[in-house]
Specification:
The chain is an alpha/beta fold. Helix content is about 30%, strand content about 20%. It has 14 helices and 16 strands. The strands form four sheets. It has a nine-stranded mixed sheet, with helices on both faces. The longest helix is centred in the C-terminal third of the chain and has 14 residues, at about 335-345.
Length: about 400
């Protein structure tokens, strides 16, 4: 895999990465970076000017309010979304897109109800997008309905942005939703400030995979066909409570005809046309900061590694989460929220945030600046030492001629 920021949480169940260590990780990535003045063009939190500005400052908080449902007309049909808050200034909106087999509730409820995540989302408009016909209570698509292609699903999102008056978005996508958001960012780079992509597979299905999927569809119920896409083999073999719950919910809350249409279209996707600059002529890749996330031994692991090799290493973070199964946002929402918080800090979006586990109050970030990243940091975890400490700090030249920092962190 290419260089970039790589986090691998320890597999020990009782292990948590200390706040001070995560701050050290963040600061190490910033080492050697060129600072630029943080302008007011896209302010999210006020800069400290002689007095502290906490996240609880009511002037900076987005009103929580109630979730409101909207059906938005797009060039490729109606799109169901739910939204909380209203755009304010040039702040980006957090926009999510779920995986196939799910909808925004099944995919993101656990993550967005996490206490740490709620502290972050108070500052943003949050907009959940449901793929056509996948929301709870959706009417069955009429016979002969042509489901939008993956490119068309991405092409529906500008209508959402325009409808609500978003200046830009911070996208969070899982599986099929990650593919759609990546495609959207490739087509409309100026509308995307950053992306968190879980379980993304940038590759289209080959003929063998397509035939295998068709055969599986003939011999298995649709939920059992979709589950191996969502969960690891270990989770499926153990038939965990989470797998049992989602098998039932996919069967009972998602219209099966509509799901089959979405499933077929996802399996007919083409390769995402992106390549790291310098690898081919006229290479095109994502321009915004990206955090790639995958669980250890997840079905999408190879695809995420492949995606990492296609992205700019200077603005890509690769987070591999141990003991999280196929859907880290469900099994490890706290750790993912923490990673998202530092991803935002690295982009200059959050001055500092409170950590309830520390008695020392707010933890300051290194700087309220935009960062031009000239170097990349690689953070990996080892398990040979029990104490939480930094074992080593080495420098080596990468293939791209950049300096790569490697840090081993044990818990």
């Amino acid at each position: 895999m290419g260089p970039g920021l790589f986090w691998n949480f320890s597999s020990k169940a009782n292990c948590s990465v200390p706040q001070s260590l995560l701050q050290t990780m963040l600061l190490s990535r910033m080492a050697g970076m060129k600072e630029q003045q943080f302008t007011e063009e896209k302010p999210l939190l006020q800069e400290q000017r002689g007095q502290e500005t906490e996240m609880e400052n009511c002037e900076t908080l987005m009103p929580i309010g109630d979730w409101k449902e909207h059906d938005i007309e797009t060039p490729y049909g109606m799109l169901h979304v739910v939204i909380r808050g209203a755009p304010k200034g040039n702040k980006p909106a957090i926009l999510t897109y779920h995986d196939v087999g799910l909808n925004h509730k099944l995919c993101f409820n656990s993550f967005f109800h996490n206490e740490d995540m709620q502290e972050i989302t108070k500052h943003f408009v949050v907009c959940h997008v449901d793929a056509p016909g996948q929301q709870i209570g959706a009417s069955q698509m009429p016979q002969g309905y042509q489901y939008p292609t993956m490119d068309q699903l991405a092409g529906m999102l500008p209508s959402v942005v325009q409808h609500f008056g978003f200046k830009s978005i911070l996208g969070i996508g899982v599986g099929a939703g990650a593919y759609i958001l990546a495609k959207f960012a490739l087509i409309f780079p100026d509308l995307v400030e950053g992306l968190v992509l879980l379980n993304i597979d940038p590759n289209g299905k080959g003929w063998i995979d397509w035939a295998t999927g068709k055969l599986s569809g003939f011999t298995s119920a649709l939920p059992d066909t979709v589950l191996p896409h969502l969960f690891s083999q270990e989770e499926l073999m153990n038939n965990t409570e989470l797998v049992q719950s989602y098998r039932q919910q996919i069967n009972n809350t998602v219209n099966q005809v509509n799901l089959q249409l979405f499933w077929n279209m996802y399996n007919s996707r083409r390769d995402l046309e992106m390549n790291r600059t310098g690898t081919i002529i006229n290479a095109k890749t994502l321009k915004c900061p990206v955090m790639l996330v995958v669980g250890d031994n997840a079905p999408a692991e190879e695809g995420v590694v492949e995606c990492n090799s296609k992205l700019d290493p200077t603005n890509t973070t690769f987070l591999k989460m141990a003991d999280s199964g196929g859907l880290p946002q469900l099994t490890q929402p706290g750790k993912l929220s923490e990673a998202f918080k530092y991803f935002l800090q690295g982009m200059g979006y959050i001055a500092y945030v409170k950590d309830r586990r520390l008695s020392g109050g707010p933890v300051p970030s290194a700087s309220m600046t935009r960062l031009a990243r000239s170097r990349t940091a690689s953070l990996t975890s080892g398990s040979s030492i029990e104490s939480s400490r930094i074992r080593g700090f080495t420098h080596s030249d990468s293939n791209e001629g950049q300096v790569s920092h490697t840090m081993e962190v044990s818990c």
